[in-house]
Amino acid sequence: MELWYTEKQTPDLGITCLITETLCHFKTPFQDLAVIDTVQFGRMLVLDGMVQTTEKDEFVYHEMISHIAMQSHPNPQHVLVIGGGDGGAIREMLKYDTVETATLVEIDEAVVEMSKKYLPTISAGLADPRVTVLVEDGIEHVRQSVGKYDVILVDSTEPVGPAIGLFAEEFYTNIYRALKKDGIFVAQTESPFFNSDLIRNAYARVGRVFPLAKLYLASIPTYPSGLWSFTVGSKCYDPEECKEKKVQTKYYNHQIHRGAFCLPNFVGELLEEEK
Ligand code: SAM
Fold it and tell me: Which atom of ligand 1 is the closest one to the Cα of 65?
């Protein structure tokens, strides 16, 4: 008998994959967690029925959330990831020798543990001696940090449950304070096709807090609509300006860095409406 997994990406649309094995499935104190093996995308981390990452396409998301900020900042030494318990974003940031400390703040310990167990290619970086994993709320961590980080990534789930506050203006204000005077941050901000209000609001909020706010895009097959947005807030470096540091990647390169900021008209218009 065939077993299929469907994520209802909107009330009217889904993505469906043939499953070869369910590796784990249980409720954590924060969410429903599953790791399934699929024919098309390999192993897949699913939280509350939503695909978070898969072995086959994770490189696009993790490279694109990380390298834009890491290449715009000339000397990132102390970096922070909020969420991202699978370890993929941390793995990418550790590719830079300038990084002395990398802190991961994940609210749900089970995400870290199951990723270490079932997604070793994604979570491998978590064993690096530069990494500290803190199991706590990223909102509180940022509230209590001042002038500490060069780069902060917000690798969050959709704005439901504990992640709601990760899209609030107060959170962006605290991120600004947690960054050093030339710090830069990036947040994943969902699909321009299905989440236009979220993108408009996040861009407006980041723009009120940071002198530089920009949006860029990448294509990620397993995320709703396949087109994904990232919002950057920077204190001084223009995120479009790539410092052209050498890095081993499968998707990101210096041309893609610049091209990612070229927005289709319907996305550009979303941001214009906010100005
Ligand atoms: N790449 C993914 C995406 O766009 O779907 C996100 C992956 S990552 C697994 C998201 C993580 O954010 C989850 O493991 C979740 O537990 C964590 N998270 C949600 N709210 C959080 C909070 N307030 N503080 C820290 N981590 C949080």
Answer: 1
Residues 6+ apart with CB under 8 A from 138: 82, 83, 105, 106, 107, 154, 156, 166
CATH superfamily, with its number, for domain 58-274: Vaccinia Virus protein VP39 (3.40.50.150)
CATH superfamily of 3-53: Spermidine synthase, tetramerisation domain (2.30.140.10)
Cβ 232 vs Cβ 216: under 8 Å: yes
Residues lining ligand 1, CB < 6 A? 30, 47, 52-53, 61, 82-86, 105-108, 111, 137-139, 155-157, 162-163, 166, 188
Domain chopping of the chain, boundaries: 3-53, 58-274
CA dist list (Å): 175 to 84, 104, 238, 264: 16, 15, 18, 28
Separation CA 64–CA 51 (nearest Å):
17
pLDDT digits (tens, 9 = 90+) for 21-32: 999 999 999 999
- The pTM for the full model equals 0.97
215-271 pLDDT, tens digit each: 999 999 999 999 999 999 999 999 999 999 999 999 999 999 999 999 999 999 999
CB-side exposure of 9: number of CA atoms within 13 Å?
Answer: 17
